[in-house]
Amino acid sequence: MVALSTNGRREEKAVANIYDDKRIFPDFRSGPLEEYRERASFCYKRMNVVLEGEDHIRLKHKVWQWMEQHPDYQREPGSDLERTREMANKRQHLLWEQQFYGVNEYLGTPHLLLAFGQAIFSYDFSTSVKFGLSTGMFPSTLVSNGSGRLGKYVAKIADNRILGAYALTEISHGTNALGMRTRATYDVKREEFIIHTPDFEAAKCWVGNLGKTCTHAIVYAQLYVPDDKHQGLQAFLVPIRDERTLLPFPGVTVGDMGEKIGLNGIDNGFVMFNQYRIPKANLLSKTGDIDAQGNYTSKIKDERKRLGASLGALSVGRVNITAITYVALSKAVTIATRYAASRRQFGPTNSPAEWPVIEYQSQQYRLIPHLATTIALRVATLWIGKENVDLTMKGFTGEDTSQAGMEIHAISSALKPVATWAARDGIQECREACGGHGYLKSSGLGELRNDNDANCTYEGENNTLIQQASNWLISLRRNNADFVAVSPLETVSFLKDMDTILQSKGQEHTPAQVLDPLNLLNALNWLTIWHWIRR
Amino acid sequence: MVALSTNGRREEKAVANIYDDKRIFPDFRSGPLEEYRERASFCYKRMNVVLEGEDHIRLKHKVWQWMEQHPDYQREPGSDLERTREMANKRQHLLWEQQFYGVNEYLGTPHLLLAFGQAIFSYDFSTSVKFGLSTGMFPSTLVSNGSGRLGKYVAKIADNRILGAYALTEISHGTNALGMRTRATYDVKREEFIIHTPDFEAAKCWVGNLGKTCTHAIVYAQLYVPDDKHQGLQAFLVPIRDERTLLPFPGVTVGDMGEKIGLNGIDNGFVMFNQYRIPKANLLSKTGDIDAQGNYTSKIKDERKRLGASLGALSVGRVNITAITYVALSKAVTIATRYAASRRQFGPTNSPAEWPVIEYQSQQYRLIPHLATTIALRVATLWIGKENVDLTMKGFTGEDTSQAGMEIHAISSALKPVATWAARDGIQECREACGGHGYLKSSGLGELRNDNDANCTYEGENNTLIQQASNWLISLRRNNADFVAVSPLETVSFLKDMDTILQSKGQEHTPAQVLDPLNLLNALNWLTIWHWIRR
Ligand SMILES: Cc1cc2nc3c(=O)[nH]c(=O)nc-3n(C[C@H](O)[C@H](O)[C@H](O)COP(=O)(O)OP(=O)(O)OC[C@H]3O[C@@H](n4cnc5c(N)ncnc54)[C@H](O)[C@@H]3O)c2cc1C
Ligand SMILES: Cc1cc2nc3c(=O)[nH]c(=O)nc-3n(C[C@H](O)[C@H](O)[C@H](O)COP(=O)(O)OP(=O)(O)OC[C@H]3O[C@@H](n4cnc5c(N)ncnc54)[C@H](O)[C@@H]3O)c2cc1C
């Protein structure tokens, strides 16, 4: 059954019936969890398949099985900063070479992108973020914002010969993206852009892969054309380091941000440019371009909208972050629930036997809501992930997706904060629920908390994102929007019945009625409208 | 004004008027905070003095000034585990040698113990916990639970020749202290105890200072006297390592717990004893003793009560933890508030000037409640710290303090969880409120979070402590207690008027009335009774 594939990797032939596949659903070892597993009122395998689908599960396990047997994917407790960086870098390259899910897979089975992402995040956040930046955010921005003239770079990425970064944030500007102060001045004579950092506050910073490893970065800079005319923020492909030696080019001062609270496998970096020249062709021209004389043209007149279009990658980013908070929380809840079922403390008087702490109501009260949140996040994640991929695919075929695009933007702006905060609180409760042993580094809970923490900040600081989502809701009301038309994903179409809903009263008389999802949904809709109307 | 003291330490003569002392209240450097400082409606120096008292402030600053100029107290970013351990150990020894606050100071000005503790915690949690275990918990348990026959050890501690640990927790038992399984069997023939660890689950673990540095530990073990008669859990002074070489003695298998989520300066350790013999005199005999034949006597008949008396150090521990969560939260809130006043993001349209983010309502809403909590914790900490010291002093003079002791036990069991959780949530909000830059290790917020995290677990896991405090309240009601008599500290004496309070209605008609502390207190009392009656 085991065969050695051409690239030396042992491959198992897939077992036709997934339920019989012991590498996916192994027999459990006997132990303290056995008793609780036997009491389960549902088949966990079926639940897994129903929620995720077979192909989703198979892809994840294929990746995990490869990682499990790969020497460079073994854990190394106590690694220092440099070693942690080195291993994350090595692992991301090894993963890329495996081509588990390349461009062809993406075009054929785009929905599995989510499964692939979750598979690698389950292993390690740093490796995954590095991988996501290099093989996702960087090339996809290049393709979606650039034009054919940058095709050779896309080929180099595919060959794993260059590694990219995405450089928007500066020392003094993060949330206020329009406030960035890096300059790109067009030099008509040499047909080049001069990239320049006016002062330290305008240094690009926090940029993943920039600290030590990237060869290129997509840099957002204020474009100036002849007569010092300002054309707003634009993205440029900027070479940072020599592809062979990784030495930075003259005019580029690049360095590492140093140790962080978490995610220390990623080399977040800063960069300052000193009158650094790049070819005219390196302007990512989809949202705006110049001719040889420096005359600027753009299909989008409003500068804010132009930036919005150019920052599309961040919207995808928010969908992905939601998906990985599911991974973080489910790992934490799994650790804590298993521990609670195994850990015994106190028992009947005069008996040496003790109760597993999961039997205490307070322990259940602490853990089970987070377990429920995990399932909710899993469902929400699969839904928004699918919608987002559908949208991208429709975009490829030229369909008008602007309405759904705005809705996903708003929904992901609400979902990302809610999901990352839910993971934050759940992981913390799990940490505490494991008592002293949960405080060991090897419990994994500290790392989950520290890594997830960044999710609250990047791709839009949570509090400012929540405002964006609220703005959308409020503007719908102010503009008396057609709630069905603005909501192809049906997230706010119920608002069309707001008057009826607001006047309705709960009719639940039995616990079963209260727990009926439809009644819960009605109650939630009522509450949403009530909050929304009060303002 | 500067004089070199005999031990080579530069000492400043105290400035008579504390407000003129620039080493305590230096002139602020000009910068972005200036504007906000000028707007203050109160004098921060007076507030400090009113809240803490001059001697409190002076002691803290004396410690800080010494640390600031000491080469071994400079920060070392990027230290690995071993180096972090080494420095915490060195710093705790150096601190001890300074005798800033020794036994004499304690007897003369006992209330300053809190100030001293807060001063060192402000610098570093690990150093302080090591110091607190070695110079507080270990000797005070020895003195309060032992008897004169262990006096030579007390002298050795004073000379900094031995270093102690407090070993209660085992691998399989934490909260359930009575369930400990380490055995101490009395051998009549040799008049010795045989300390023995029956299996791995009974290994002592998590014990601070045990991993690498302690020479002795107070070990809790089940006492067995002749005829295999079990006399319950007792504390023993157990030599662990040679005082000169720090090599463990034969029969003692001792090691380190490895890397933790935080507090990595402390060498938490585990130990297993193999038929390890200690002299009969090493039984801490205050709560129970044996004669040469092994006949056991104790003034306290009930085993639970005996353990309660012997674990008194943990009650003091909870008071101290409350005091240090104030330190942790105030550091975090200071960092985040200053950052919010300095960080600018967005501004009026078409203006390059931007607003400090503290001007945003949402940022205020996020930070100011935690600032208020900090003040509340400061007041609560000073109050319970003082009551606790008064209690200890009364105990020294032989006064009956059992009623106040029970009240402090209950109140500290409620306050410690509330305080540590408040710090946990506040530090996290501060981390997020600082955006990306808050995620740098050098922001200090990650370390505060990771170090404070342990406060939720040790000296009583928060959730189980809350239950203890509730038990006390419920039993008062069940027993129809005299609420004034059981509450010398007046924390629950208001319950005597419960019927009147419950029937009272809010009479506040203006915002000023609502904010009147007395009205707030009435409302809180009402709410407490309402919750308490409902059960
Ligand atoms: C681990 C990590 C990786 C990162 N990777 C990258 C990367 O690869 N590329 C890149 O370009 N960037 C990256 N970033 C930067 C990240 O995108 C920014 O940190 C983020 O956008 C927040 O911006 P800021 O840090 O400037 O926070 P700020 O905008 O300064 O926010 C500080 C505080 O002010 C509040 N605030 C700001 N504006 C308002 C407002 N209008 N109203 C109310 N409150 C407000 C915020 O809520 C926050 O509490 C990374 C950051 C981290 C931590
Ligand atoms: C950094 C650190 C330093 C420490 N230093 C020392 C030291 O110097 N000396 C020492 O002896 N110990 C030390 N400890 C151990 C510490 O005191 C214990 O971890 C603590 O008492 C909790 O016990 P536990 O870890 O066994 O948790 P458990 O008691 O196993 O608790 C696990 C979970 O079960 C729950 N639970 C337990 N019992 C009940 C119940 N009856 N009802 C409802 N829920 C329940 C708890 O709330 C918790 O969520 C240290 C621990 C840490 C983390």
From TrEMBL, chains A, B:
Its cofactor is FAD. Residues 312-473 form the Acyl-CoA oxidase C-alpha1 domain. Keywords: FAD, Fatty acid metabolism, Flavoprotein, Lipid metabolism, Oxidoreductase, Peroxisome. Its EC number is 1.3.3.6. The keyword Flavoprotein applies. It is an enzyme of class 1 (oxidoreductase). GO terms for biological process: fatty acid beta-oxidation using acyl-CoA oxidase; lipid homeostasis. This is acyl-CoA oxidase. It comes from Drosophila simulans (Fruit fly).
